[in-house]
Amino acid sequence: MSQKEINQQEWSNPSNWRWSLYRSEKDSRLWVPKQVSAMGWTLNLSHRRANLWLGLFGIVPCLVVLLMAIIGGWRTLSTSPGPWLWLAGSLALTCVVATLNPLWRHGLSQAFPAAAFGVIAAAVGFAIQGLLNRPVISIVGVANLTWRTHLYLALAGAIAQTTGKCLLVLAVWATLRPTNLTAKVRLGLMVGLGFTVFEILLIWLNAALAGSPVTHWWLGACERGLISSLFHIYSTGLLALGLATRRYRLFVFVIAVHYLTDWLAGANASLLHLSDIQLELAFVPPVVAIWLVFLAMASKTRRESSLAASA
Fold it and tell me: Coil, helix or strand for 187?
């Protein structure tokens, strides 16, 4: 049988299709027609170059954000080292945070495509957040926002971003098809990594377009690269663990901590009468709690899996 005939046979096999996603190690093609040919083409996810293309789907939006920031805020970015130092410091600290769990030592070949799903998760989460919050802000007015207003805005943000993470964790599972619980949680962590990297780039874009000077860049880098990254990476890992084991109380915990941190960030130091450093320190306990609960739940799940396997 020729390779062309093998390709056609694999393409016609319904077991190689799931949610309109195609996977066949025997099919030599990288791109194949969709089941409904008029809808175009799709990746063969088992092809050795598929991960590269999946990663590109995430890196292109990041490059667009960088280009917009450089073009729109060139005067500010070219005359002040603050924004660049903030960006570099935030991304460097994010890389440090990402290594705080041994799951990162394995499966790094999927880190790039899974992080691309995290970029999409951020876009989805922020879009939902905008739909929920924008009408309220337009009615109340930015100048009239109080810490009480942020009680609603923070809750909407926590629910919206958690929804985006959950949807894209499920999508990355359907795409990369992890074979066990550990692999599922690992992919969740990588989705969280892509989420936080894209959030850092969006904040940098907003600052550049607004021409806002970055003061105390080191403090902002610690907030985004250390505290926020710790939260987004390991909260997404917790959500993946909750989805995989149906422990839905983990969703409540993640949303509650996200609600608290978003309210602190929205109400900000001036409304709460806190200094910048006091505000940053207030973020630390709830975010560290997320990390510790993730470590505890991951360890508990491993023990339960070992006991089930030995029984």
Answer: helix
Q: How many CB atoms are closer than 10 A to CB 166? A: 22
CA-CA-CA-CA torsion sign (274, 277, 280, 281): negative
Q: What is the Cα–Cα distance from 306 to 59, expressed in whole angstroms?
A: 38
**Residue 17: which H helix or E strand, with range?**
strand 17-18
Task: State both tokens at 280.
Answer: 């940053």
Judged on CB neighbours under 10 Å (0-12, 13-18, 19+), 251 is middle
Contact predicate 295/235, CB 8 Å: no
Tokens of 256: 């509650």
- Based on its alpha-carbon atoms, the radius of gyration of the chain, rounded to whole angstroms, reads 21
Cα–Cα distance for residue pair 176/68, rounded to 1 Å: 31
Query: Using one digit for the tens of pLDDT, what is the confidence trace for 195-211?
Result: 999 999 998 888 887 77
Closest CA to 199 of 91, 294, 98, 282: 91
How confident is the model over 215-265, as pLDDT tens digits? 788 888 998 999 999 999 999 999 999 999 999 899 999 999 999 998 888
